[in-house]
Design goal:
two-stranded parallel sheet; 7 strands; 14% strand
Length: 188
């Protein structure tokens, strides 16, 4: 793991909720499970701004990949179980089975999405490249998934993900981030 990835792990785990979620995530027994997105990159932005690590974080996301059951009912049951395991944290938690994304994506985004092959492929499709990040525990070590690297994240640069063509939605998301962290800059 390079120095920036090590810094990313250290920074994100300064958020108590991230640390607990990552440590206890294996208790759910979910295949290919990752702590992803806003709870990670927003923790970094908070620290860069001198704010408490958990400030302005709206929710905490976990992606997993279970191709054996694509039902919404099972995903709902997974979320209920997670709320029992992590209820004491007092945060909004959302778990999404990335194996079933292609079943709801067209209705939500108005365009098709090919079936994904693992949880990280869901992270790879985040609208803002610098926010495409995930962490998981594996064999006693923390793994980092950052397909666009971590440099833009630490520079506060927002860049459209070239793998996902959702221009207006990207713009809306970038403006929302800039409203909460005004120092962020559009790289496009």
């Amino acid at each position: 793991m390079d120095a920036l990835a090590q810094r990313f792990v250290q920074d994100t785990l300064r958020n108590h909720c991230n640390a607990v979620l990552l440590e206890r995530l294996p208790e759910l027994g979910l295949p290919d499970a990752w702590l992803v997105g806003g709870c990670l990159f927003q923790t970094v932005w908070n620290l860069l701004e001198g704010q408490p690590p958990g400030a302005r974080i709206r929710d905490y996301d976990i992606f997993y990949f279970d191709g054996t059951d694509l039902s919404e009912a099972t995903e709902t049951a997974v979320n209920l179980r997670a709320r029992q395991v992590f209820g004491g944290l007092g945060v909004q938690l959302e778990l999404k089975n990335q194996a079933r994304v292609h079943t709801w994506y067209p209705a939500y985004f108005g365009r098709p999405c090919p079936p994904l092959g693992n949880a990280c492929e869901g992270v790879n499709r985040f609208l803002v490249g610098s926010t495409s990040v995930g962490l998981r525990q594996s064999g006693g070590t923390v793994q980092v998934h950052a397909p666009h690297g971590l440099e833009d994240l630490y520079r506060g640069l927002l860049r459209a993900n070239p793998r996902v063509d959702h221009g207006p939605l990207y713009g809306s998301k970038a403006r929302d981030y800039q409203a909460r962290w005004p120092w962020l800059q559009l790289a496009d």
